[in-house]
Amino acid sequence: MPHITTRPNGFASRSRSAMGEMNVTLFIDVLLVLLIMLILAVPMPVHETRVDLPGEPKCEGCLINRDQNSVVITASDALLWNGTPVTRAQLRMQVAAASALPQEPVLRFEPDALASYDTAARTITLIKDAGATSFAFTNHHHYRQF
Predict the structure, then answer these.
(1) Distances from the Cα of 18 to the Cαs of 9, 12, 22, 24, 66, in angstroms?
(2) Residue 90: how many CB atoms within 10 A of its CB?
(3) Torsion, CA 90, CA 95, CA 100, CA 103, rounded to 10
(4) The model's pTM
(5) SS3 of 62, please?
(6) What is the DSSP string of 100-113?
(7) pLDDT per residue over 52-66, tens digit each?
(8) Which of 26, 62, 126, 133 could serve as a FRET partner for 15 with CA atoms 20 to 30 Å apart?
(9) pLDDT tens track for 14-48
């Protein structure tokens, strides 16, 4: 007669109902594979944008000092660039050329005491719009007494 050996069954003590936990390991593995495929499928940026960088100022007839320049408004509201009369368009070109230098010179603003406020305000706006960042007000001693 054959001998029958019985082994203890570890699952026999549990109930026969369905298992309530979900095995998420396979789910995570599939998501990681899909993520890697998505990364590999995205094309690498191969386009390039050409940008013209500023060089030396292209200003014909510009009278630019490398250290400092002055903008003067006379009592008759005439504009002077380093002592030379200029129009508003010429002033804008001079300031833009000075601002484009590698080491921007200081721009001294010297309005006359009798110059109109409107002309001074429009000139400051013009200088700002032309790109000047090194700007100084000078000759304040004219305005000590009103």
Answers:
(1) 18, 14, 11, 17, 87
(2) 16
(3) 140
(4) 0.54
(5) coil
(6) TSSSPPEEEEEE-T
(7) 776 554 565 667 777
(8) 26
(9) 556 666 777 788 889 999 999 999 988 887 777 77
Residue 64 to residue 111: CA distance in whole angstroms: 19
Alpha-carbon dihedral sign for residues 56, 62, 67, 68 = negative
For residue 114 the two structure tokens come to 């009798």
73 φ, ψ to 5°?
A: -110, 120
Give the dihedral sign, CA 85/87/93/95.
positive
Q: How far apart are CA 94 and CA 74, in angstroms?
A: 18
Buried b (16+ CB within 10 A) or exposed e, 104-132: ebebbbbbbeebeeebbeebbebbeebeb
Whole-number Cα distances in Å, 89 to 5, 40, 72, 86, 92: 109, 55, 15, 8, 5
